[in-house]
Amino acid sequence: MAHTSTLFDDEFMKKLEYLNIVSSRMIPGHLHGEHRAKKKTDSGIEFADYRQYVAGEDTKNVDWRTFMRLDKLILRMFEEDADLPIYIFFDASKSMDHGEPSKYDYARKIAASLTYIGLLNHDRVVLVGYADGISKEMSARKGKTQVWHAFRFLESVRPAGETSMQKAFRNFFSARRRRGLVVVVSDFLDGDGWSKAFDMLRYFRQDLFAVHVYSVDEQHPDMPDEVLLEDSESGTTERIKVTPGLLDAYAEMFEEHCEEVSGYCRKNGYGYVRTDTELPFEDLILRVFRQGRFLG
Amino acid sequence: MSFLSLSPAMVGLLLAATAATVAILYWLKPPPKRVVVPSTILWNRLLREKKKQTFLDRLRWWISLMLALAIGLSVATALGRPEVGATGDEVRDITVVIDNSATMATLTTDGFTRWEHAVSQARALLQQGSAGSSFLLVDTAGQAPPTEAADRSAALEVLSSLTVALGGDSQFPLLPPSDGELYFISDGVMVDGAPPEAQIVSVFEAADNVGITAFEIRSVPAAPLTYQAFLEVTNASPGPKEVSVRLSGSGSGRLGETMTLQPGESRGRTIDLSSFDRGPVRVALTTDRDAFVADDYAYSFLPVRRRTRVVLVSPGSIYLERLLLLQPRIALEFLTPDQYDRSSGGVAADVFIFDRYAPPAAPAGPALLFLPPDRPWLSPTLEIVDSPSVEGWDTSHEVLQFVSLEDLRVDRAARITPLIDASGADLADILVGNATLPLVVAYENPEKILRVAFALEDSNFPLQPAFPIFVSNALSWMMDEHVALASPPGRVEVPLPGATVADLEGNEVTTWPLADRTVFVAEKPGLYTAQSGSRRLRVAVNLADPERSAVNATGFPPGTAAATSTPPLAAVQPSVWGDELWMLLLTIAVVLIIGEWFTYHRRLTV
Predict the structure, then answer these.
(1) Smallest CA–CA separation between B87 and chain A, in Å?
(2) pTM, full prediction
């Protein structure tokens, strides 16, 4: 499996292997994560429950010992994993192409990591790059062999355009989609409003895990006294007089923004992690694991 | 306010330019730097909220502008070197000569002295002119000799260091050539000679004064053991004065007398001191409204009056024997050399006189030797010189006081080895002769020795009128008991090298040792004692000067306005910042900069 990508180089691959091992140790039996729907069926390996036999049903799961003891036909039920997909949405808008290292690369690494682990766990993974709508989509894949396909897909998407998570979700989920886990890796600087997009996910009864990515200079910008601020997405400019007081107020505003996203997720039982791009991405993935939502 | 480095117009221009520059810099909007941010969503939201505070922001902007203007204008004003404190704006060249002669210590009717009025006038003169003016303050007693003109503070500093000089010569100083203003502040009594261009500031006011114009203690020539005090009292007041004179000394010595003196009258008194014991003698005057205190008392010293025991050891000298027998203060004992040798030096005396003889060991007291033979305790004789010429003599030495040796002829004399110490310095004073042939030398080893290198019989010295004076002086010198030296207040020199000097209360006075004498400054009348080793000398420092007591003998014309009608001004404490304000302005600028920096970083002004 030779691979020449600079984004997903050998070093990255080693880290993914490490994450895979660590995740296995952290959560024994992680192949059957909590996020997966449990379906009680008459076939399977793991015993789940008993129920009354209904006439016409297959008698292969009748518990004859119980019948002998209680004179009642009782069926043994088994639990079987539902094949719930993972939808990984990574923000490919122009605002992500910022910072050193860039938020976009960082987001792609996160997306690649989660995809890798998902595929290794035989999950069905869908990758979606979005900006003002869906930029590019990788259809559902399953199995370890799809890893390189996913990586190539991630490398093929370039950040451009404005952000509209709402449009992207509407476009994506307007097609018939199975309920699953939606992972959104973004800076959540969405002109249309990220909360409306999240509401849409609730409407489609999708589970959500939000990964909030930002750069340090975005959180604490260092600017001269007077600047012409240019929006990287829209290109609009605003002349402002920068004072320490204004920078302090901006830092507070940024924190409020993060708290709003976090608060929304917490309120609705969604997963949320936030990070700046200086945190090693593998540490972030471990934090995701610890939240117990992505792999349980 | 005036400016020292720039004209007012230039300063105004500088201030306007500074204000304009600061304002333009504030209004100028240089092209802002373009900064690309991921999104302006948060910025826009923030700026929308901030717009509510526009008025406060503008106020802060104006405050910031005002601060910048204040800083800039402070610095610009400092560049102009503004100054305050002067009563005049012009640059002047002021020279003030202040009289600090003795009579300036005279009190005026307001309770201050003429000197205090003079200092006040001088200070007022030195406060005139701008800070750029040059000032020179000179006194008449030489305490502040003429130098280069300096600034106001230097002149005021000199003024504060001056005092009234009771003694010494006071004269109008020789000033460096100048086209400036010249002021002479004086009472016009002791100092004259002011140039015509000098503006006289008179501090004269007629005053009462009765003073001691002479006081001396001397022995009576006919009875050397009897001492008398000569006292002269002068009334320098405009009217008659009744004076109480009180003479006090050691033991039970007390004398008192009251006399009435007419204006300008001097009255002398000769007072017998028989009832006084050895020690200091003080005379004091008491009179009403005496404005000059320094001449109201005087001091002297009454020496011991015991007869001096003198042993003359000689093979026979008619001159010495007869002369010593005529000395009333001497108890003479005559011995031949054999008799002295037999006594094995056990003879007790105050003074020994050895004629052509010297004992094997040094006597236990001072000695006068005429042509002594070689002895271990004497410097050896090198040769005998026939008909030596008398090169000169030291009349400053006490032994040769009033002694003239013009006609001295010597047939033969001994050339003695110079007495020097390890460093080669002379230990003996050559009183007569020179270094190659000293004829009379005096030294201490440790007793006082006066050695004459010729015999009386080999010279005409005994026939000279100076001979008895020489012997009398020699005995006085060796007895080391003298009446006090008389000196006016001021610089006093005593002929003792490396001496310590103490006043009558025992307080040590600062001295300056010179090669062969010691100098000290007696600021007030008193009896001072100088001591160097075993030698002691008393100095009676008295004003005792008719010129100094004549406090009303002013040379100023009668119509000269006196500056004593108002009390003297109090000394003006110089401002911490001085006359110039540039330091204050720069300090203000620095404080404002620090304040703005502090408030900026404390988010108070942004």
Answers:
(1) 49
(2) 0.49
